[in-house]
Amino acid sequence: DGGITQSPKYLFRKEGQNVTLSCEQNLNHDAMYWYRQDPGQGLRLIYYSQIVNDFQKGDIAEGYSVSREKKESFPLTVTSAQKNPTAFYLCASSIDPGYSGNTIYFGEGSWLTVV
Amino acid sequence: GNSVTQMEGPVTLSEEAFLTINCTYTATGYPSLFWYVQYPGEGLQLLLKATKADDKGSNKGFEATYRKETTSFHLEKGSVQVSDSAVYFCALSEVGGSYIPTFGRGTSLIVHP
Predict the structure, then answer these.
(1) Radius of gyration over alpha carbons of chain A, in Å?
(2) pLDDT digits over B27-37, tens only?
(3) CB contact (8 A) between residue B45 and residue A90
(4) CA of A42: which chain B residue's CA is closest?
(5) Measured between alpha carbons, how far is A77 from B103 in angstroms, rounded to an integer?
(6) How far is CA B22 from CA B70, B81, B86, in A?
(7) What is the pLDDT of residues B58-93, one digit of tens each?
(8) Inter-chain contact A42–B31, Cβ cutoff 8 Å?
(9) What's the gap in Å between the CA of B80 and the closest CA on chain A?
(10) Could you tell me which residues of chain A have a Cβ less than 8 Å from any Cβ in chain B?
(11) By three-state DSSP, how is residue A58 classified?
């Protein structure tokens, strides 16, 4: 089945550690996104990518990094510079970044907790 | 810039009650409008959408009409079920400025038997 796979589902980070969240899609979508979700704050955009080898900062990119070396993959690294990383992280994709009516497809999310 | 405003939750209803979740938006052009639903511990999934003024999106008994004159896209359902308990997000996407979707804060719906 086509879809977006995020892993791991649950991840614990120690202070000062970098961690990487995986996101893979087999939908052949051009655009991919990372969102952070905190209770009561909705979704906040971290990074997005329209094509391979290109990505742009979203509203809250500080302390995060991404890469887009393959069309199907868009991993997110939460660095030690992110001081409050505990949150639910959602990866998403859409088929064509040039059409406003495109549906955004989401993965199941990853829970990151600082211990 | 673009923005989406949803009514504060939680919305608590009894089964078979009528549901309305208000959503208004601000956009510079002609956006497409969406409702997404998130069940506990899961990602979001598209519930319905409308891409131009006066369009009505519908799915699983839910409806929303794109009202350009009032810049609104309210979600309605005539008879809710316990299984509708979830968080509902209104969103817009607009070509021209940025196609990146803008989401509201989400409205939690709790349906009691």
Answers:
(1) 13
(2) 888 889 999 99
(3) no
(4) B105
(5) 23
(6) 12, 19, 15
(7) 999 999 999 999 999 999 999 999 999 999 999 998
(8) no
(9) 23
(10) 4, 6, 33, 40-43, 45, 48, 58, 90, 92, 97-109
(11) coil
